[in-house]
Amino acid sequence: MSAADQSILRTIQLAAKMHPLSACCVDICDQLVQDLVREVCSSCTSLERPLSPRTMELLEGARGGVVSAPLRDLLAAEVQASERCAWQMEPLLKGGGDIFGNHAKQVVETLTCTNCGTQIAANRFAPHLERCMLGKGRASARAARDMMRSSAESDNRSSF
């Protein structure tokens, strides 16, 4: 095996360990380099004097060969690794769980109280109705206390 082949093999082995975000960064960088080369090639071809056919052939060849073969192999290996990972994660994601296999929490259903119009979670609706409609709770206790005070004050005034 030649040194170039060994280098490519090492690159592919590293690609299997590469994070998908890293592969994305490599791809973006590769796209930027390709765009830069295309821009230079197009500016060279749009010169006022016509280029020789040999120069045109070299420029067209440069456009296609911007991405190095090891980089292409690296990206192909990364794609295979991510597909393998996605295949393994598919049953977990279809089951409604997260990557650790935990099931997602149920969304709490909210109901609107017909008496006061506030929105209450379904599991707290019965206690709310008890306080709201039957006069139990903080507000009704205050109202009762205020009524008792006012009746006590009116009794004190009438006794004088």
UniProtKB/TrEMBL annotation:
GO terms for molecular function: zinc ion binding. One of its GO terms (cellular component) is SAGA-type complex. Signal peptide: none annotated. GO terms for biological process: chromatin organization. The keyword Ribosomal protein does not apply. It comes from the Eukaryota. Belongs to the SGF11 family. This is SAGA-associated factor 11. It comes from Prymnesium parvum.
